[in-house]
Amino acid sequence: MHYYGTSSTNKLGHLTIGGVDTVELGKKYGTPLYVYDVALIRERSKGFKQAFERLGVPSQVAYASKAFSSIAMIQLIDEEGLSLDVVSGGELYTAIKAGFDAERIHFHGNNKSRDEILMALDYGIGCFVVDNFYELNLLSQICEEQDKKANILIRVTPGIEAHTHDYILTGQEDSKFGFDLHNGQAETALKQTIQKDRLTVLGLHCHIGSQIFETTGFIKAAEKMIQKLGEWNKLYDFTSQVLNLGGGFGIRYTKDDTPIEPSAYVEDIISEVKTLMAKHSLEMPEIWIEPGRSLVGDAGTTLYTVGSTKIVPDIRTYLAVDGGMSDNIRPALYDARYEAVVANRPEANLHETVSIAGKCCESGDMLIWDLPISETTAGDVLAVFCTGAYGYSMANNYNRITRPAVVFVENGETTLVIKRESFDDLIRHDLPLYTHE
Ligand SMILES: *Cc1c(COP(=O)(O)O)cnc(C)c1O
């Protein structure tokens, strides 16, 4: 099996993470339980950040907090000296409550509300990543009213879409995000902004996709953007202080995934960007990136307790666990694939192939299809790997299932960072039609 980060086994033959016995974690905190390997998050953060430092390129590595946001998580990111992306008032509020420096917060989203913009201006965030003309006008209008100024990045769609090993050149960009670079929308946005003295354009932003294993897509996107920056420098005397190339760096979910190291992405991309900037006689801007999944994805493991089994003769065996699409909707939402082991004996010989079902009332509530596994019975703890990104953050209360607890483990220590929801939490906002005894 593949052990991520600090994962290993102990004398009892149990799976450990951060030096902590996962079976004990299950007993103490209950299941389902999200377990984060803090050392691995630190390692990934440093991987990106130190690569820029080694190259002597000014940068901001902003954690895309939508991947997993909580007070403790934001504080960990703060300890590592990263910046932060938020995409909603709620993510922004979490960051501020965590004590995160507003200057290093970047606000994304294709439909920021007036209230969200007011809130962000009030906190004094570092920059708005402006997505469309509506927002451009709204932001400038609110800045007038409030007598405030704002830094912005113009989000562009460069006509590149990248997923895993493929990147596609899309001439006519069909996306809900950003200003199109080819049809002149991005240029119009720039011209409009130059006239607004309350808005300062720091530069351009793009985000070309997710779970990307190669640098080609990033480089193609950079090429398109730098080409335009060259033109705009001549036409409008505009200099981009920042080039933000987004996130989307891939991770290993299963043995079929072959990611490269954070430093390898950075080195490859920077070397090309330097060449391209020089070619257009432009000064090297600050480079910003926005990893989400690649900082927390493989650092997260979900522990479940195995319950019922259903054998469909000659077809398949379903093994049901005490969670499912309520704590991890990715398999149901986009066929995400995972690997798992029995945490109380991860090294036992593989015995059969089963499919891991959740406990929600949906046939589509499956976590893993066709998982080779050791002999497994009710009460065993199943550890599903690589659930750290878009797992808890997409968790929901379908079937009125309570959201799991989340713990951080590091150097043999466990910290509870999100409490398990209670039934009372579930009905907290419910208002009765009448009271009863
Ligand atoms: C989702 C998102 C990211 C992070 O993507 P990952 O695949 O998690 O790295 C970064 N930037 C923007 C604008 C995003 O929407």
TrEMBL record:
Domain Orn/DAP/Arg decarboxylase 2 N-terminal: residue ranges: 40-296
Top-rank taxon, per record: Bacteria
Ranges annotated as spanning the membrane: none
Ranges where the Orn/DAP/Arg decarboxylase 2 C-terminal domain occurs: 34-388
Binding site for substrate: 293, 330, 334, 362, 390
Positions annotated to bind pyridoxal 5'-phosphate: 248, 290-293, 390
Record bears the keyword Transmembrane helix: no
PROSITE patterns, A to Z: ODR_DC_2_1 (PS00878)
Pathway assignment: Amino-acid biosynthesis; L-lysine biosynthesis via DAP pathway; L-lysine from DL-2,6-diaminopimelate: step 1/1
Molecular functions (GO terms): diaminopimelate decarboxylase activity
Keyword Lyase: yes
InterPro entries, sorted: Ala_racemase/Decarboxylase_C (IPR009006), DAP_deCOOHase_LysA (IPR002986), De-COase2_C (IPR022643), De-COase2_N (IPR022644), De-COase2_pyr-phos_BS (IPR022653), Orn/DAP/Arg_de-COase (IPR000183), PLP-binding_barrel (IPR029066)
Function: Specifically catalyzes the decarboxylation of meso-diaminopimelate (meso-DAP) to L-lysine.
Family named by the database record: Belongs to the Orn/Lys/Arg decarboxylase class-II family. LysA subfamily.
Subunit structure and binding partners: Homodimer.
Stated name of the protein: Diaminopimelate decarboxylase
Organism field: Jeotgalibacillus marinus
